[in-house]
């Protein structure tokens, strides 16, 4: 914690800062994330959290990935598809997109290819698959629920 400098807005109480610190101190890049949250509290002041993607991404630390998650969790209409590091790995393996490191590019292709009715859940589904089954090394293809359609699986000898 020695190099951690917080810039809390004056109206944020030290109790709240302590709670935020306890909740986030085990998270990667916690100092940046805590400062983004504190910055957001001062930007939003008494306004509510935006309900549109173009407004959410104006907040510090909020990119399209987080904005898509916020829209989903607050039951708004989807405006995109969640693409995190797991989705970035899984969808090219599966054969749905070419391999790109750019999440925005992958999201755009998914939005073009997949029906709007799937946008809310498909990113989360691929992310969960990536976390549990389609791991970076040794994906557990034999227990994967979508292996019959997977390009990677079809290339494995004797399958
Ligand atoms: S079959 Fe294998 S490579 Fe394809 S999505 Fe499932 S776990 Fe990933």
From TrEMBL:
**UniProt keywords, alphabetically:** 4Fe-4S, DNA damage, DNA repair, Glycosidase, Hydrolase, Iron, Iron-sulfur, Lyase, Metal-binding
Pfam families (alphabetical) = HHH (PF00633)
Residue ranges of domain HhH-GPD in the record: 1-132
CDD domains, from UniProt? ENDO3c (cd00056)
Organism from which the protein derives? Flavobacterium profundi
Q: Name one GO biological process term.
A: nucleotide-excision repair
**What protein am I looking at?**
HhH-GPD domain-containing protein
Q: Which family does it belong to?
A: Belongs to the Nth/MutY family.
Alphabetically, the GO molecular function entries are:
4 iron, 4 sulfur cluster binding; DNA binding; DNA-(apurinic or apyrimidinic site) endonuclease activity; lyase activity; metal ion binding; oxidized pyrimidine nucleobase lesion DNA N-glycosylase activity
Cofactor names: [4Fe-4S] cluster
